[in-house]
Amino acid sequence: MGHHMNDFRSILSNFGVEVQGGCEVDLNIPTTMMDSNVIMENTITEPRDDMEFDSHEDAYSFYKEYAKSVGFGTAKLSSRRSRASKEFIDAKFSCIRYGNKQQSDDAINPRPSPKIGCKASMHVKRKPNGKWFIYSFVKEHNHDLLPAQAHFFRSHRNADSLKNDVRVRRRKNLTAVSKLFGAYQNVDCLESYMRNQHDKGRSLVLEPGDAQILLEHFMHMQEENPKFFYAVDLNEEHRLRNVFWVDAKGMEDYTTFGDVVSFDTTYFTNKYKIPLVLFIGVNHHIQPTLLGCALIADETHYTFLWLMQTWFIAMGERAPRVILSDQNNAIKAAIAEVFPGTRHCYCLWHVLEKIPRQLEFLSMWHDTFMLKFYKCIYKSWTEEQFEKRWWKLLNRFNLREIEWVQSLYEDRIHWVPTFMKGISFAGLSTNLRSENLNSLFDKYIQRETSLREFIERYKAILEDRYEEEAKANFDAWHETPELKSPSPFEKQISLVYTHEIFKKFQVEVLGAAACHLKKENEDETTTTYTVKDFEDNQNYTVEWNESKLDIYCSCRSFEYKGYLCRHAIVVLQMSGVFSIPSKYILQRWTNAAKSRHGIGERLDEVQSKVRRFNDLCRRAIILGEEGSLSQESYNIALCAIKEALKQCAIVNNPVEIDVRNTITVTHAVCAIEVNQCSNISNEIVPDPKVTNANKVPRRAGAGKEVASNENSASNKGKVPLPEVVSVGIQDGFHQMYVEKVEDK
Can you give the pTM of this predicted structure? Predict the structure, then answer.
């Protein structure tokens, strides 16, 4: 008992917030001393009246260096020679945004102009002795300064290549970033520290008392449902680094709606008070499902590798078909290692929201640029069209040398709609975050939300999700969707889709009346149409292969929303096809989404099944209301349900036994009172015996041990799981493990 108590207290000490991880820098506070050193080393002195230069070129070189350190581009505004000696006697240098834009009325395709009336400038004059002095200096700008992106300005592009090295720039950016956010939150800036620590030394930064709140939350959740899963990752000094958890409902939802998952790091990258990341899915009512939460110490490859592998284990080692994330090299590498067969894509709004920040110098032509940009990514039907438009766009706006733009092109298969044929995002990839299902969590999490507040709101999140889904299920059982047209497509889908997705599809059916198609060409297998949509006054390309029942539209409604568009519907209708091909009716959107049997090829069978399902649900509700009136009626109803379920199982599965994989996680326990957990020490945990991720340890149960499946331990090609320690409330302190067991 005493030994277990010490282990438990040692674990608690890892949750303490006073200790630090692998770096020898205090990562809890802004690195003031480090900042001052960097400033002394890298910042150019501000222009002063007492400065002298050998020539006006030297003066301009100084002004350029000053501008680069502060964050603006420069230009030579004017210069003047002596009429007698013909030597330069006067020169004026300015910010590239100095003055106002001038453009003739008949200009064709004018080049973008950065001028917005900025007054920042430096005026120098020549003394009789040949030296140059600062005659006047205007420091103030009327726009934001961009020290971290200064190398993008044309005046600074030809600087020393060593100074333009990415790693050097990252180290120089440490000063500005640490002032704003604290160095512990910026991975790029701590690159040298992390390299020395092999990306493993960081520790999670929490406020006093947060650790105990977190642990008590885990204990409470697991008491309510033993299937609640959580895991913690300790650094080399055995201090808390990363934490992951998911409730039983999240794991259950993943079995049905795990085809598309969004990995949302918005709250972490936007420097919210809690370093929270979320795994989010979407159910058949177009409602977000929470598939996991994590608190992470940094954005290193190691952290994301640990997190992806841990989430993979929690989800029963079933990989999603598609996973969406922000554009991040560490995330990309981790997903490629853990989910080699998964299609990794960047959410569109993640890419689009970065444009104003990354291309800030184009702000004056933002609207013009976005029109061309949207045409390039949304209207390019083929890869060849995209390539042509992309390079034309870059040439027009002089973007070929911009590193971020280069990275977008290199990662084009991860985000450009042209490359998304044949997959579906189920509505999780949108143009704006406000349109994205992920944004529904924003009402629970604000920038200053503390961990204590989030834990309380986490319970509200789960309760709201349960209630909204239950209400949608109830409506599906009790209400029949209203048909608004004689369309056979509308009638067909009304018997299959849930109400929410049917209403969206219904809009497309009605919208087909505003579409006019024209056959463009036809070969042996495929017919291509141009569809004019009079509602948005746009033309769309639709390809139809009747033999394979394949249909693709350039609006990509099926890829991004998961159901066919009006343009495809009008082509099907004019081709004599009056039912949606089954391949374009995703089971995830149907009333039978949670059925263990697939939709199959015959939609009439699906429709009959849905009718039977809805009828049984209505009758079950009536039985529940009547059976709950007394204990006697309850017992009768319960016995009837059990017997009916048994007989149905025999009829439907005469031979097979339904075996489900159950994830069981053994956690720490010690028979101690809750109030004994209140004193958290800062002791370092004794070196635990870490489980090898490639081996499945034995299950520690309530008084007995069950041998693990040896075959499951030898799966080849798996990524080794980084060291994981799990904390919880069962029979003793054990390492985290996963085992597949049969339901009894």
Answer: 0.58
